[in-house]
């Protein structure tokens, strides 16, 4: 169905190729998974398959790329459909229902039947509870992503392309899309690009691994997903089960908890003199362990642990809150309540996560925290002072934010100018009578040093400093906004979906940056759908549901086994490492905690 032979593509404004001599074949009804670090060429390949590159982007090609024996540019209107990484860019209709009706009507389906089918598709992507006549731009980011998927399904294509199409979905939504892809297997040919290999386990038949525009590997998905060295060498984190199995010394590379248990049984039976692993006992602190550097600091007594403690103190002992919400209520328009009676606080040295399903009110609440929205009722306090009567610029002196959509924050022509911008705005402060004089706060040397420091912290290369940020991959644009928010050194940083669309390397940098802020006594608020990441970095958690606080407490408490059923009913799920740990019979939320509780003993007597 899909065949590439030495396929090469180069954008018109670039000196190097975006895709270089790709060769692969996908049969009808198969699922091709595509992984690779940011800027590897995943989105460019997706656009080439959907005929957008070079038809809309311009550029030149060499070699061949065909779908059913034809150039993608010759495909019929309903042969290929694509869900974009930048999902909002493909929403063209004003109202939700019309976004799905339009492609159905374009296929010649009578309007009455199209309306019925559109409602079924909205139900398939869990948008059935949304008012049909609601404006598309009023939806949350995750809801917009669901809408884009429903509209693509309405085309009923032979080939469907999902380009990082689940990074803004809540965990339940990610599972639903995975189930949807599984249901389409065999009937349609699917291409699924993702930064998270775990998302392709059990889904992809074949895997294409890209790195620096080139083909690093192509073959059976299960084989390549087990190759931890291959993935890590290009900056992609291996599946959680694979990573943990290697850390605890299993001889095989399992992809699922079931395979992990089988591998554990096999290794245990072949080492009768010593069990492969055991749960740590009272002597745990004295026992040797091997652990990856990934998140190691999160288990260190130098910082706050996941039980909300720091050197014997609870989070509440860290001092007065830097940021506090007291029974906050906010409405969109007339009686459309987005946030209601929310109470929340974050102290210096605390990382607090806000989680919840799509449309739960998380992003709205984040904008209330930094003064972009003002509460209709209740009180928001920054450094103990109400935000009433204070401008967003004034609040920004203490609280920084990165928005869910990084494009809403980017305004400068180069990455360097973007990161310098908040420092330049604060470079001088007013002094003297009526503020008629000004004094320099930051000199040029300080600004240059600070820009370099935050770029290193979030993993931005010097090579992109003169690039236009709007032309960078979405994950890199997100890193730019985080660096920009860090530059003025705020007391509190609010991060809305900080690891959505980033690769494994950038994710590790983000973990390191948050740990650095914690050690510096800063307050950090993380809003995310990635439960693995939340449990890696957060000390405390608030669960929002329909704009209200549904649960609040230390991370280990919220994600404790007794709450798993409740979390599932609220579109959440425990992290992957926790699910594996439960199967094995230990308690852990993260890969590092698993390794710390499960000590490999692979010595064979004789």
TrEMBL record:
It is found in: Cell membrane. Belongs to the ABC transporter superfamily. InterPro entries: AAA+_ATPase, ABC_transporter-like_ATP-bd, ABC_transporter-like_CS, ABC_transpr_CbiO/EcfA_su, ECF_ABC_transporter_ATP-bd, P-loop_NTPase. CDD domains: ABC_cobalt_CbiO_domain1 (cd03225). GO terms for cellular component: plasma membrane. Its main location: membrane. It comes from the Archaea. Residues 2-237, 323-571 form the ABC transporter domain. PANTHER family: ENERGY-COUPLING FACTOR TRANSPORTER ATP-BINDING PROTEIN ECFA1 (PTHR43553:SF24), HEAVY METAL TRANSPORTER (PTHR43553). Pfam families: ABC_tran (PF00005). GO terms for molecular function: ATP binding. It is a peripheral membrane protein. Residues 283-318 are annotated as: Disordered. This is ABC transporter ATP-binding protein. Keywords: ATP-binding, Membrane, Nucleotide-binding, Transport. The keyword Cell inner membrane does not apply. The keyword Nucleotide-binding applies.
């Amino acid at each position: 169905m899909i065949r590439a032979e030495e396929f090469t593509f180069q954008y018109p404004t670039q000196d190097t190729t975006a895709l270089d001599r790709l060769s692969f074949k996908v049969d009808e009804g198969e699922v091709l998974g595509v992984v690779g670090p940011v800027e590897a060429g995943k989105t460019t390949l997706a656009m080439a398959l959907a005929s957008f590159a070079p038809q809309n982007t311009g550029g030149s090609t060499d070699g061949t790329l065909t779908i059913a024996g034809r150039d993608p540019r010759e495909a019929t209107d309903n042969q290929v459909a694509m869900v974009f990484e930048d999902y909002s860019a493909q929403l063209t209709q004003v109202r939700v229902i019309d976004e799905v009706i339009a492609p159905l009507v374009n296929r010649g389906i009578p309007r009455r039947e199209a309306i019925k089918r559109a409602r079924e598709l909205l139900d398939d992507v869990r948008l059935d509870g949304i008012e049909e006549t609601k404006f598309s731009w009023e939806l949350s980011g995750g809801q917009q992503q669901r809408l884009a998927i429903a509209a693509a399904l309405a085309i009923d294509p032979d080939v469907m392309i999902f380009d990082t199409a689940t990074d803004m979905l809540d965990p339940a939504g990610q599972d639903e899309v995975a189930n949807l892809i599984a249901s389409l297997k065999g009937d349609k040919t699917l291409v699924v690009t993702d930064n998270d290999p775990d998302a392709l386990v059990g889904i992809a038949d074949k895997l294409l691994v890209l790195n620096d525009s080139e083909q690093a590997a192509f073959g059976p998905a299960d084989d390549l997903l087990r190759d931890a060295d291959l993935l890590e060498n290009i900056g992609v984190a291996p599946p959680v089960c694979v990573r943990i199995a290697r850390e605890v010394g299993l001889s095989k590379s399992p992809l699922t908890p079931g395979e992990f248990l089988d591998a554990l049984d096999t290794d245990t039976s072949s080492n009768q003199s010593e069990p492969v692993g055991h749960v740590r006992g009272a002597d745990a602190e004295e026992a040797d362990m091997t652990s990856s550097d990934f998140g190691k600091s999160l288990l260190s007594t130098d910082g706050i642990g996941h039980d909300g403690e720091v050197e014997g103190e609870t989070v509440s002992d860290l001092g007065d809150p830097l940021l506090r919400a007291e029974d906050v209520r906010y409405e969109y328009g007339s009686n459309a309540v987005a946030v209601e009676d929310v109470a929340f606080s974050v102290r210096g040295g605390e990382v607090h996560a806000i989680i919840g399903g799509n449309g739960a009110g998380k992003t709205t609440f984040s904008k209330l925290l930094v003064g972009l929205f003002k509460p209709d009722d209740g009180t928001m306090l920054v450094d103990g002072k109400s935000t009433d009567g204070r401008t967003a610029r004034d609040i920004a002196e203490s609280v920084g934010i990165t928005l869910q959509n990084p494009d809403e924050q980017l305004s400068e022509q180069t990455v360097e100018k973007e990161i310098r911008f908040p420092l330049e705005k604060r470079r001088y402060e007013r002094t003297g009578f009526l503020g008629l004089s000004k004094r320099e706060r930051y000199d040029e040397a300080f600004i240059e040093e600070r820009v370099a420091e935050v770029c290193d912290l979030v993993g931005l290369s010097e090579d992109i400093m003169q690039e236009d940020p709007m032309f960078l991959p979405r994950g890199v644009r997100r890193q730019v906004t985080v660096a920009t928010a860090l530059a003025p050194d705020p007391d509190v940083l609010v991060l809305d979906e900080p690891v959505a669309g980033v690769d494994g390397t950038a994710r590790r940098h983000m973990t390191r940056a948050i740990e650095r802020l914690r050690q510096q006594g800063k307050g950090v608020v993380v809003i995310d759908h990635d439960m693995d990441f939340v449990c890696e970095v957060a000390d405390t958690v608030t669960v929002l549901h329909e704009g209200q606080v549904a649960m609040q407490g230390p991370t280990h408490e919220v994600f404790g086994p007794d709450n798993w059923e409740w979390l599932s009913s609220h579109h959440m799920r425990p992290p992957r490492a926790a699910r594996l740990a439960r199967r094995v019979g230990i308690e852990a939320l993260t890969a590092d905690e698993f390794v710390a509780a499960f000590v490999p003993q692979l010595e064979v007597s004789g």
